[in-house]
Write a structure and sequence with these properties.
The protein is mainly alpha-helical. It has 7 helices and no strands. Helix content is about 60%, strand content about 0%. Helix 4 packs across helix 5 (about 120-135).
Amino acid sequence: MTTRKTFEKPALSIEDQISLLESRGLHVDDRAFAYKVLSNINYYHLEGYWYSFCDKSKPDHHFYDNVNCSQVVRYFEFDNELRMLLFAAISKIELSFRTRFIYEIAMEYGASPFKNKISISMLSHIGRNLMKDFWMISNIRKKNTSFTIRKHMKKRFLLSGLWEN
């Protein structure tokens, strides 16, 4: 069993966060831009994006040469746009599934199925059959979408930082 230690990193001001990133090799051409970004996007949330730009062979998460703040932000923005596109598509699939589910129940048991004594197990059976038609939904929901940083923090520390959201 792994022994976990208490989270002891100090809270840093945004200016100090920028300085820490620069000390680790991130090029910050526009401090005002970096300040605005870190004011609106949590440091630890962004860490999940800049981790790809870090040289894992160096201690303390040093960045590869010539990595700048704008690159990390573009990576974050791309991920957000992709997430919104996928969410829009998944929402349509979900609405279609719910519509078909309700239709099947209404056609079989009427507009008030619980009044007609439909059981939860019957609903589950109908739902499972419809899920076969919508295999994409089940595959998407099975995927693990948690951030690597959250796994890392929970594995290493008894208490994670307030800023991990």
